[in-house]
Amino acid sequence: MPVEYGEFKGNKMIILKRDENDNFPFQFGKGKARLIAENLDAIKAFAEEE
To answer: Each residue of 39-49: pLDDT tens digit?
Structure first.
């Protein structure tokens, strides 16, 4: 999965793409990155649910 970095209103963003041609990437800043990192186990469990 390609990872890029960008900026939005002066804030650094991380941009996650499914592939190079992804028109709707998942992007977020440091605040949400910290929240994701703190809750990674819950996110993984949610992703694995059926």
So the answer is: 999 999 999 99
Domain ranges, ordered by start, for the chain: 3-48
List, for residues 4-48, the tens digit of each pLDDT value: 999 999 999 999 999 999 999 999 999 999 999 999 999 999 999
- Kindly report the pTM of this predicted structure: 0.79
Distances (CA, A) of 28 to 3, 21, 25, 50: 12, 19, 10, 26
3-state helix, strand, coil in the chain (%, to 5): 35, 30, 30
Residue at token pair 């499914």: 18
Axis crossing angle, helix 30-38 with helix 40-48, rounded to the nearest 10 = 70
Count how many residues are written for the chain. Answer: 50
